[in-house]
Design goal:
Keywords: Membrane, Transmembrane, Transmembrane helix. This is TLCD2 protein. It holds the Pfam family TRAM_LAG1_CLN8. This protein is mainly α. The chain has seven helices and no strands.
């Protein structure tokens, strides 16, 4: 959010405009997703991690295009807003592993997790899908196809995860 406040031109051009450091941030993010994928492949069973590996693969492809072409970096920055919610998803996992499910901390994290999920995952993905559709005439067909497929994969995945979180944390 700070990037958009400091660089309002991003609101008008998510394809060719990006502030200093944004390209590096997206490149480091690709590295993170690659490292996390390798870690999952080495330390988890495939049936436990296939969804997250699939998610990481889509992100690596989409962000990799942005890094290699030096375009769509602004769009990738918007996509990184989704990761704000990851903080609370990870805290949730840690609390589950520590068997602290029946604590005030877990309950509070569940509420914050759900709120940030709606704002930073669902609303952000909806906004990105809308932006992509409204700007389809400014995006080359190959990039539009990659973006559309990426959004078509990420949106249902996030809706399913949201349902699982609701069911697990609020409707047990």
């Amino acid at each position: 959010p700070c990037r958009f406040y400091l660089h309002p031109e991003l609101s008008n051009d998510l394809v060719g405009t990006h502030p200093p450091g944004a390209h590096s941030l997206v490149a480091v993010s690709v590295g993170y997703f690659l490292e996390d994928s390798v870690d999952m492949l080495c330390n988890q069973k495939l049936h436990q991690s296939w969804e997250l590996l699939f998610h990481h693969s889509v992100v690596i492809i989409c962000f990799g295009i942005a890094v290699l072409l030096h375009q769509y970096v602004g769009f990738a920055l918007v996509a990184l807003l989704v990761e704000i919610n990851s903080i609370f998803l990870h805290v949730r996992q840690i609390l589950l592993m520590a068997n602290l499910v029946h604590t005030t901390c877990y309950r509070l994290n569940s509420l914050v997790n759900l709120g940030t999920y709606v704002v930073f995952r669902i609303a952000t993905l909806a906004w990105m899908t809308r932006w992509l559709f409204l700007n389809r005439h400014n995006v080359p067909p190959a990039s539009y196809a990659v973006g559309t497929v990426g959004m078509a994969i990420m949106t249902p995945m996030n809706i399913i995860l949201f349902y699982r979180l609701l069911r697990s944390d609020f409707f047990r």
